[in-house]
Design goal:
The chain has 222 residues and is mainly α. Helices cover 77% and strands 0% of the residues. The chain has helices at residues 2-8, 12-25, 30-42, 46-59, 65-81, 85-98, 103-115, 120-133, 138-150, 154-168, 174-186, 190-203, 208-216.
Length: 222
């Protein structure tokens, strides 16, 4: 659809306009409403996005559990973006009640739970499902590696971050490079760790924590 094309091109304003225009001809179309809410979230208009997601929930047919789960997952993502982790986790739980196979909800829940110092065993179980289902998904592998890092299982963390890096090849994500640096550092490979941090910093030059690690050539927690 035109909405998807604009979204892929990262023209979120145009995608939002297109979704709104289409809704005039197809009022109450839950998928179009969902697209529009997603664009608001991507535009950092989080309060408006939450309102639209809630309207979308009301428009979803009762038997469409997958779409319901997808919207609940997006609500979780948006609440987390607002710094409301507890609310986010409630929505992830609801998303997984609606569709236990929602891999995006499983991955995001696992990752954010790990970041918040939550139940690492629960996070590992959720992340393991994602890796089993999508063994070539770099995001899932990065999450899994990061959970092992937080559990201080550094050998396992390195195994999975290496797999994520191999998949990304010449187009690595800053987060994955940053994680790789931390993981390699804790495995005693300080030279490669610093190189990973330097590469990550080129992609995220304003990242204060990365700046600190590169400048001091050592690992720091937040």
């Amino acid at each position: 659809s035109a909405v998807s094309l604009y979204a892929t091109a990262e023209d979120y304003e145009k995608a939002l306009e297109t979704a709104k225009r289409a809704l005039r001809y197809q009022p109450g179309d839950a998928m179009l409403m969902f697209y529009g809410a997603n664009m608001l979230s991507l535009l950092e208009r989080t309060d408006e996005a939450i309102e639209e997601y809630e309207k979308t929930m009301a428009a979803i047919p009762a038997d469409n559990r997958e779409l319901k789960s997808a919207v609940l997952c997006s609500l979780g993502d948006t609440f987390y973006k607002k710094g409301l982790a507890d609310s986010a986790f409630v929505y992830y739980d609801r998303a997984l009640e609606s569709n236990p196979d929602n891999l995006l909800a499983l991955n995001n829940y696992a990752y954010f739970m790990t970041e918040e110092g939550g139940d690492l065993d629960k996070a590992e179980k959720m992340s393991a499902i994602c890796v089993r289902q999508q063994p070539d998904n770099d995001t899932a592998l990065d999450t899994y590696a990061w959970i092992f890092f937080k559990k201080k299982e550094y050998d396992k963390a390195r195994e999975f971050i290496d797999r994520a890096l191999a998949i990304e090849g010449d187009n690595p994500q800053a987060d994955v490079l940053h994680h790789a640096g931390d993981i390699y550092y804790m495995n005693g490979d300080h030279k490669d760790a610093i190189e990973f941090w330097e590469k990550a910093l080129k992609l995220e030059p304003d990242n204060k924590l990365l700046q600190k690690k590169v400048k001091n050539k050592t690992h720091f927690y937040e």
